[in-house]
């Protein structure tokens, strides 16, 4: 009798938990994607609702079938993007002790510098071969453009939840160039992401402004990343994972020919190389939950065996910290009950599960996290830094 058991599996972390997928080939292979679709986004800025709906239909199809697409003609200025990459590359080239002024472990909300190998998504590796610098929404930074009423509300109601960025203060030229360049890019990304949120609403057959009220001061994390070329066969830039935010927009520097890979249903890694003047957009776990699984949060990883240094800037978007988001009506099954998602509580739980080292300096043996009512125990260095 023929043995149909697949021999090989791909291992990953999805939704904060370890998982695996069999590699299916030949007659066992299922229909699945083999490339990442490219979508011309320029119609999202069109005056015509019909045009906006057409592009939303393409976005909806990609989110349902792949969970990833390239956003072409996104409208974010090339000059701003190149300025951000230049500043980030110069900043990473500084000595470690200069970068460690903003050590991520001294910040409650994990903003700042994360050294090489300090996270480990794949336990079979020596750690993720990348270093990172993270910023996000900070109502005290004027560049963050926090509306006055929101600022007053969050300062009164949630003072302990207010995230603060860590900007370098040592007056090196690279330190001084970082903030204006990175914030210039961040601001344009917030605007594009808000426009995209309206496209997602249309893609889900909801009114275009459906999500507007929960994105007045969205929770955004932007992580500048540097991946040296891998030295060992077992190295990985960032191990296989899903993102936990609503959606991610990744800008990849074209200086490195490849790196990002997306896992299809047959356990095959599909390349998502840099394509000039595009972002790679992917659905995160939060959006997958909010759409009751209609939109897919797809596993991906970064492998850099090119011999070149790789740089990328993922921008992770989520609704306001104090928002509550009901499961989108058009995605619900009749008669089934759905709990609304509390943005603040959701992220607190995911960040707690994902971080091995707490800002108070302790490194617990195990990190415990409540997930969907089940207590999961995860070995500390296993799950990491994915926003
Ligand atoms: O560097 C990239 O292209 C993607 C990084 C990524 O997947 C992440 O930071 O979650
Ligand atoms: Fe990711």
Automatic annotation (TrEMBL):
Protein name: Clavaminate synthase-like protein
Family affiliation: Belongs to the iron/ascorbate-dependent oxidoreductase family.
InterPro entries tied to this protein: DIOX_N, IPNS-like_FE2OG_OXY, IPNS-like_sf, Iron_ascorbate_oxido_reductase, Oxoglu/Fe-dep_dioxygenase_dom
Domain Fe2OG dioxygenase positions: 216-319
Lineage, highest ranks first: Eukaryota, Fungi, Dikarya, Ascomycota, Pezizomycotina
GO biological process assignments: small molecule biosynthetic process
Domain of life: Eukaryota
Source organism per UniProt: Rhizodiscina lignyota
One of the record's GO molecular function terms: oxidoreductase activity
Keyword Thylakoid found: no
Keyword line: Iron, Metal-binding, Oxidoreductase
SUPFAM superfamilies registered for this protein in UniProt: Clavaminate synthase-like (SSF51197)
């Amino acid at each position: 009798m023929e043995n149909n058991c697949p021999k090989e599996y791909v291992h990953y972390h999805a939704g904060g938990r370890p998982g695996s997928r069999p590699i299916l080939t030949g007659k066992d292979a299922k229909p699945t994607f083999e490339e990442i679709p490219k979508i011309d986004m320029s119609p999202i800025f069109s005056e015509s609702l019909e045009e906006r709906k057409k592009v939303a239909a393409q976005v909806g199809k990609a989110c349902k079938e792949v969970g990833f697409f390239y956003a072409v003609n996104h409208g974010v200025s090339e000059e701003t993007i190149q300025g951000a990459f230049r500043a980030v590359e110069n900043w990473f080239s500084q000595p470690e002790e200069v970068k460690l002024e903003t050590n991520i472990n001294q910040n409650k909300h994990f903003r700042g510098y994360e050294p090489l190998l300090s996270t480990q998504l794949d336990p079979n590796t020596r750690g993720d071969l990348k270093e990172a610098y993270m910023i996000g929404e900070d109502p005290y930074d004027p560049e963050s453009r926090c509306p006055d009423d929101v600022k007053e509300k969050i300062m009164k109601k949630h003072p302990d939840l207010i995230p603060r960025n860590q900007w370098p203060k040592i007056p090196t030229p690279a330190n001084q160039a970082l903030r204006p360049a990175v914030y210039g890019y961040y601001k344009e990304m917030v605007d594009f992401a808000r426009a995209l949120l309206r496209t997602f609403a249309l893609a889900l057959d909801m009114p275009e402004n459906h999500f507007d009220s929960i994105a007045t001061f969205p929770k955004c994390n932007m992580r500048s990343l540097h991946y040296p070329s891998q030295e060992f066969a077992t190295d990985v830039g960032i191990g296989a994972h899903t993102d936990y935010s609503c959606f991610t927009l990744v800008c990849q520097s074209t200086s490195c020919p490849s790196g990002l890979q997306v896992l299809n249903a047959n356990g095959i890694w599909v390349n998502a190389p840099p394509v000039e003047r595009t972002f790679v957009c992917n659905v995160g776990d939060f959006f997958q939950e909010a759409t009751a699984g209609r939109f897919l949060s797809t596993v991906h990883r970064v492998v850099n065996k090119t011999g070149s240094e790789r740089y990328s800037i993922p921008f992770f978007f989520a609704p306001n910290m104090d928002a509550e988001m009901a499961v989108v009506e058009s995605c619900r099954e009749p008669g089934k009950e759905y709990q609304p998602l509390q943005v603040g509580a959701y992220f607190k739980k995911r960040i707690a599960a994902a971080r091995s080292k707490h800002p108070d300096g302790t490194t617990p043996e195990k990190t415990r996290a409540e997930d969907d009512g089940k207590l999961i125990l995860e070995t500390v260095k296993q799950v990491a830094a994915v926003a």
